[in-house]
Amino acid sequence: MVRNEFVTRAAMLLCFSTAILYLAVHSRFTASKTPTHKLETGEKLTANAATTVQKPWDFVLGNKQNANGYYQQNALFAQTATQQLSNNLASQETQVVVHLSDRRVYVYRFGQVIASYPIGVGKKGWETPIGSYQVINKQPLPIWRHPITGQIFPSGSDSPLGDRWIGFWSDGRNQIGFHGTPEEKLVGTSVSHGCLRMRNTDVRMLYNQVKISTKVEVRQ
User: Fold this and answer.
1) Confidence check: pLDDT of 10 > 90
2) Which of these, 8, 56, 89, 135, is most buried using a 10 Å CB contact count?
3) CA-to-CA distance for 127 and 106, rounded, in angstroms?
4) Pairing state of beta strands 131-134 and 215-219?
5) Distance (Å, rounded) from C-alpha 164 to C-alpha 218?
6) Alpha carbon distance 219, 143 (integer Å)
């Protein structure tokens, strides 16, 4: 009788120990499968940290709305930088060379002449300045102010500047550049106040071949 009672108690103790061991192992295994998150510097631990961890940009910008603004600003910056790079490359690959004695302008692309146009140059006392310059402004249908009288000539078919202007020199008040003319028969002579006159069809093509910062070399 005593022996049977001892065996019964031993069996109950063994079952109880086995149950405790199972619960301990199961609890540890479940905990190992729960996702954890490494908290970034500056993040506050919350009761639901495992599901409310902020994105990296939240720590820099405060919230997701600011993050969207951040990405928009970076996209705009990238677009602007790309456009500037494109303009710089275009200005470096194209060069304009003026030969005053030949009364011609040559357009180079990667060292090769791609176009050549006749020009009218500055007359005596108003010689076109020799030197290295670059395109500083461009304007379709320009308005002209006479350098001596100050008279204003509006744009149009009778404008002394024709229908395109490509400026490359300025003293802060006066400017010199390529432009068209209503008197195309004078192209090829020394007739201007320093500017380089071109036939309107030619200056339109030159206008499309150059950009701001394109190099202009004026030689004798």
Assistant:
1) no
2) 135
3) 19
4) antiparallel
5) 20
6) 28
Beta bridge partners of 105: 98, 117
pTM for this model (two decimals)? 0.58
Give pLDDT, residue 82. 57
Structural tokens at position 207? 């206008």
What residues have CB less than 8 Å from 75, skipping those under 6 apart? none
Q: Which CATH class is domain 94-219?
A: mainly beta
Tens digit of each residue's pLDDT (9 = 90 or more) over 88-144: 555 568 999 999 999 999 999 999 999 999 999 999 999 999 999 999 999 999 988
Write out the two tokens for 129. 């300045």
In this predicted structure, the answer to whether residue 50 has a pLDDT above a threshold of 50 is no
Whose tokens are 């969207």? That residue is 68
- Concatenating the DSSP letter of every residue in the chain gives -HHHHHHHHHHHHHHHHHHHHHHHHHHHHHHHHS---PPPTTPPP-TTHHHHPPPHHHHHHSSHHHHHHHHHHHHHHHHHHHHHHHHHHHHHHEEEEEETTTTEEEEEETTEEEEEEE-BEE-TTSPPPPEEEE--EEEES--EE-TTT--EE-SSTT-TTTTEEEEEEE-SS-EEEEE--S-GGGTTSEEESS-EE--HHHHHHHHHH--TT-EEEEE-
Q: Which amino acid is at 44?
A: K
Q: Please determine, for residue 167, whether its predicted confidence score (pLDDT) is greater than 90.
A: yes
The domain limits of the chain are 94-219
